[in-house]
């Protein structure tokens, strides 16, 4: 049975939200181990992440681990003047936070904390579902597709890595022309990798 994109979003979000707190905790610890094993970790300094919501793989332990490794972490902020686009702001324990229009916490806009996308080393992307070919299904706003467009066309700049629970994998997603496949996706149990 082939699901539509909205049907898949509903199905996988429900599947993700049914995970127990124990599974969420173990998944967040396994994510740190998978991340630490990435070859890119030796050279990456500026890493964009996101704060988890709606049953997503908990990124807070990973963020704290990255801080302990001396890495700089950045979070997405909805661009105030360019609709549908993201800015990335440095995130520390004392960063002032605010809720965006989707009810998601993000750093309060502060120009000196903005890091241009081209100066990031990795961009960790949220996703609702992913398939065996590296395609990701997001929430439908296209924010990350736009952010990653130049990387997708040229292979230059911050490399994207998707983060997901194992239960978010499906064999094949219905795709659109604007979808950006990812070169790597990390789940608690494995690294999925495709040629960029």
Automatic annotation (TrEMBL):
<dbReference type="GO" id="GO:0009396">
    <property type="term" value="P:folic acid-containing compound biosynthetic process"/>
</dbReference>
<comment type="similarity">
    <text>Belongs to the 5-formyltetrahydrofolate cyclo-ligase family.</text>
</comment>
<protein>
    <recommendedName>
        <fullName>5-formyltetrahydrofolate cyclo-ligase</fullName>
        <ecNumber>6.3.3.2</ecNumber>
    </recommendedName>
</protein>
<dbReference type="InterPro" id="IPR002698">
    <property type="entry name" value="FTHF_cligase"/>
</dbReference>
<feature type="binding site">
    <location>
        <position position="51"/>
    </location>
    <ligand>
        <name>substrate</name>
    </ligand>
</feature>
<keyword id="KW-0547">Nucleotide-binding</keyword>
<feature type="binding site">
    <location>
        <begin position="136"/>
        <end position="144"/>
    </location>
    <ligand>
        <name>ATP</name>
    </ligand>
</feature>
<dbReference type="GO" id="GO:0035999">
    <property type="term" value="P:tetrahydrofolate interconversion"/>
</dbReference>
<dbReference type="InterPro" id="IPR024185">
    <property type="entry name" value="FTHF_cligase-like_sf"/>
</dbReference>
<dbReference type="Pfam" id="PF01812">
    <property type="entry name" value="5-FTHF_cyc-lig"/>
</dbReference>
<keyword id="KW-0479">Metal-binding</keyword>
<dbReference type="InterPro" id="IPR037171">
    <property type="entry name" value="NagB/RpiA_transferase-like"/>
</dbReference>
<dbReference type="GO" id="GO:0005524">
    <property type="term" value="F:ATP binding"/>
</dbReference>
<keyword id="KW-0460">Magnesium</keyword>
<dbReference type="GO" id="GO:0030272">
    <property type="term" value="F:5-formyltetrahydrofolate cyclo-ligase activity"/>
</dbReference>
<keyword id="KW-0436">Ligase</keyword>
<keyword id="KW-0067">ATP-binding</keyword>
<dbReference type="GO" id="GO:0046872">
    <property type="term" value="F:metal ion binding"/>
</dbReference>
<feature type="binding site">
    <location>
        <position position="56"/>
    </location>
    <ligand>
        <name>substrate</name>
    </ligand>
</feature>
